[in-house]
Please model this.
Amino acid sequence: MEESKNKKPSGRRPERDSVNPDEILRIALKRFARQGYGGLTLNGLAKETGVTDSLLHYHFGGKEELWKKALQKVGKKISDELVELIRLVDDLDGLQQLKLFNKKVVYISAKYPEFQQIIVQEVFSESPRSEWLIEELLQPIYKFMTDIIEAEVRKGRIKDIPTANLTSFIIGSITTLFSRSYQMKKLYGVDAFDEEVVEEHASIINDLIFEGLLKK
Model:
C-alpha cells in the first residue's frame, strides 16, 4: 500500500524547478509540427518536459507566445544562414545566385523539417498566426528569390513566369520531399534526410527548374 502511494504518475517526468529555454522551445517546435497548434497543450508539454505549468507560463507566456518563440528561434538560424549565403554570392550573376539559393533551401528544409511542417499547417488560410508567420519569417526569404527572378526576367535570360507561380513551384518542389518524408519512405524506401539523398535532391531540383526556366 505504501509503495502504491509513493509511486509517481506514469507518463510524467519528475518536476524540475528550473527551465532550459532552448530545450523547451526545441521540444515545443516538434510538438507543434506533429500535433498542430490546436493539438498542443501547455499542460501536456509540462508533463513531457517535467516543468510545471506555472514555470512555462512565466518564461513563455501563453501558447501563442510559445509558438512564436519556437518559430523565431529556428527562423533566426535560417535567416543567419541565408544572410551568410547572400554575402558570399554577392559578386556572382543572378542565375548562379538562384542556383545556390535553391541548394541552400534544400539543405535548410532537410535540417529544419518541423519549420516547414508548421508553415504548411498555418499558411493555407488567413489567420493572425499566418499573418505573423508571413510578415516576420517568410517575407525576407522570398524577397531574395523574387528580386533575383525579376532582375533575370528584365535581362531576358529567363522566361517571364508570374512570380507567385514560379516561387511556389520552386519552394514546393524543394520542400515536398521532406514535408512528406514518411510517404517517400513508405512508397519508395527513400530516407529523405539521408545526406546523399539531400545532395541528389539539390542537384535534381536545379537541373529540372533551370531546364524549363532558361530561355533557349
Notes: The mean pLDDT is 89. Residues 128-154 form the longest helix (27 residues). The CA atoms of residues 89 and 100 lie 8 Å apart. The chain is about 75% helix and 0% strand.
